[in-house]
Amino acid sequence: MPRNPSTGVYSKPAGTTPSVGQVIDPAPWNALTTDLGNEITNSLPRDGSAPMIAPLKAAGGTLSAPGVGFASTPQTGLYLKGGGLLGFAQNGVEVAFDQDLVYAVKSGDYTALASDDNAVHRFTAAATLTLTAAATLGANWHYCVMADGGDVTIDPNGSETIDGAAKLILKDGYSVEIICSGGAFFTNKLFARIQSKADSSAVGDFIVGLTLSNNVGSPNTHIDFAAGSARTGSSFVSSATSLTKRVTGTFAAGTGAGGLDAGAIAANATYFAYALRKDADLSFDIVLSTSATIGGVTTTLLIGYSIVKCIGVVLTDASSLIRQFVMYPRDEYTFVTPVKDAVNVAISTTSTLLALTMPNGVKVKAKLRFEFTSSATTNAALLSDPAQGALVAGAGSDGANVGTIQVASGFAVGSQEIWTNTSRQIRMTLGGSTGSIWIWTDGFHFHCGRGS
Predict the structure, then answer these.
(1) Is 8 exposed, middle or buried (0-12, 13-18, 19+ CB in 10 A)?
(2) For residue range 390-448, what is the model confidence (pLDDT) as tens digits?
(3) How do the residues of the chain divide into helix, strand and coil, expressed in percent and rounded to 5?
């Protein structure tokens, strides 16, 4: 066949170039006309009336002159890139297309590669995802990570960053899209936005769960904190599991570790329990401090943590052991063993303050029971909130809450919940003469914000 199948060049058969006066040999001329007919038949009609019956072989072309283009816009079309890859040009500009999405499950640590471009990996356990160098992955490389069984720590190569940070900890139950710029990594900010929403100050202050109790194995030195969550303003933290802290050591992260912000455990002391949030991964912890306010907590050991909210209180006895208690809904505490805060204490018409076994530095509502005696046949005592000032006991004055004695040196009993001052005190006075009083402290209400 005269057309070269490799180059497409047509060559006439020999003997088909006549000269003037030459007698034409019909054989080569018949071959020529046959070839011409065949080649015309084998050509692609410009009007599109017939299709190709074999692969169309186009020129490789370039970005600025595609091998397959358009007469009106020659810089738009298809061309062959290096490595046998197909390129798409649009007005001389490269048009990129994603690779096919590839889904895979990962159960441990993994290093993301260039071949993971447009991949979706679901991690079913806590793991570290190491990112190959950004320059190797190249600009526009992107990758989706799902944490579905544990937190995933995303760790860029060397000193490279992700959203400007050295690492990103993707919490269990969340997902994030990672994009490479060729020099650093960024995310679609969805995870950060969700976390920001969780920290919205519009939600208010509250505590859910996180109730305190004496540890069963070591009730005198360890406190258990139930699972739950706490918020103050824009700061929020939660824990899906219980946590134990001991009062015999200074703060260290994790359950079973020390909890004091400073110093050693003291006798007859008050320790306020504060919920902490670790800045790096938003995890939950507890610190115990004698300070009744967040501002007074010693933070030397709390670098990298934010103090969220006071969630409870722990008292120690004269032996520096935790005074055992039961905690009820709405922040109510009951001592396992009632405390005798007054035993045959003299009481008179002079109003005096009496210290109780209560949290120090805050006002609480004490749960009290009384027993009163007097040599007078009609006498009564009044125990009250110091904020009311010096009241006067008696039916004709401010009343009473224990008495009246009908028999000389007899006994009267009573009970009441009374607010203390910040020095753990209540006020007491007698209606007349003198008498003696016994006071049992059953516990107290220290409101942190639990609703149930």
Answers:
(1) exposed
(2) 999 888 898 888 877 777 777 889 999 999 999 999 999 988 888 999 999 999 999 99
(3) 10, 40, 50
